[in-house]
Automatic annotation (TrEMBL):
Complexes and interactors: Homodimer.
This protein's name: UDP-glucose 4-epimerase
Entry's family note: Belongs to the NAD(P)-dependent epimerase/dehydratase family.
Needed cofactors: NAD(+)
CDD domains, A to Z: UDP_G4E_1_SDR_e
Amino acid sequence: MSRKVLVTGGAGYIGSITCVQLLAAGWQPVVFDNFSNSQPRVLDHIAALTGVQVPLVQADVRDAAALATVFSQHDIHAVVHLAGLKAVGESVRQPLAYQDTNVTGTQRLAQAMAAAGVKRLVFSSSATVYGEPEGLPLVEGMRCAPQNPYGRTKWHCEQLLADVCAADADWAVTCLRYFNPVGAHPSGELGEDPRGVPNNLMPFMAQVAVGRQPLLRVFGNDYLTPDGTGVRDYLHVMDLADGHVAAVTALDAQKGFEVFNLGTGTGVSVLQLKASFEQACGQTLPTVFADRRPGDVAANWADPSRARNALGWQARRSLQDMCDDTWRWQSRYPQGFDTAHPDSS
Ligand code: NAD
Ligand code: WQD
């Protein structure tokens, strides 16, 4: 009998692919999502890929009663908590909404878990908690000084969860600091489907390639980096999903609070990512150089060795895999999950 994992935000970009990888590893995901940034049909795509219609609870993580019901109706072994708001610019305009969903949501979830005696949790954190890097590559013990409200909510959650573990030795919590997740499921059936104009580089380029955006703006070409453009640690979402499987599996033998960077350990510039994506889609993307984007750091990349040593996890997929899989998804579903199914015509 496989064990159940509650996946909050399980209909989202990372959550949906994490469900597929959890199923492949023999876990039974239960999705908890309010569809504020996703759609129910995502679960049909998961079913088409895996043959499993994952159980769904449509509810809000701030809803204590809904959480209590889930834990009473399902024998949940562990929780992967991905539900949250994630747009940096929006968080500057709506700090209270970010505090409410991200921090209060995490607090309510932890309360419901404690009441149900389920004390194993994997939490979606972000490399954005570091802010301006103290050094490169980034190591988990380095200073955290997030530079925007979104990053501060993730940092507050990490500290709250560390305090929960310090107060009760029965808890095992792992915070995963993702660097820059990109890519899609290699089938092309699941991928990132941002609402409105994409904030992030890879989905923006993908939308330029299908004609949904007119051109790419490269934010800054005068950074102190090899080609002057920003450098990041792009990570395939399949590797990230595998990292969640490794982290959930490790909770059984874990006591207390852990934090791991999930990245490749390699920095890639905007122009390098663009060149790989152009290779994938067979087009040259119309591009202009624009001013730096406020709040951006010049470069960051992870030291992922702690996750390798403790979880046995490391990123395996290449930059070209990230671009090829993004393009397979975007070209198959140019309007994301609103696209009519390619095999239905
Ligand atoms: P996403 O928006 O695709 O997925 C989040 C899911 O949570 C969505 O399905 C949304 O409907 C759901 N959700 C939002 N608020 C909710 C609420 N109050 N109650 C229930 N469900 C709610 O985002 P993603 O890229 O898959 O990110 C997942 C997590 O990873 C987030 O916590 C995000 O902050 C974190 N993260 C993402 C990135 C990234 O670049 N994508 C990087 C670092 C960390
Ligand atoms: C990458 C590079 C841009 C768009 C963000 C969040 C972070 C995390 C991951 C959630 C930078 C440049 C971008 C464009 C560009 N999310 N760029 N033109 O900013 O590293 O991280 O997503 O936790 O918190 O801040 O990712 O993809 O937005 O930018 O030139 O149209 O691409 O300046 O150098 P970022 P990104």
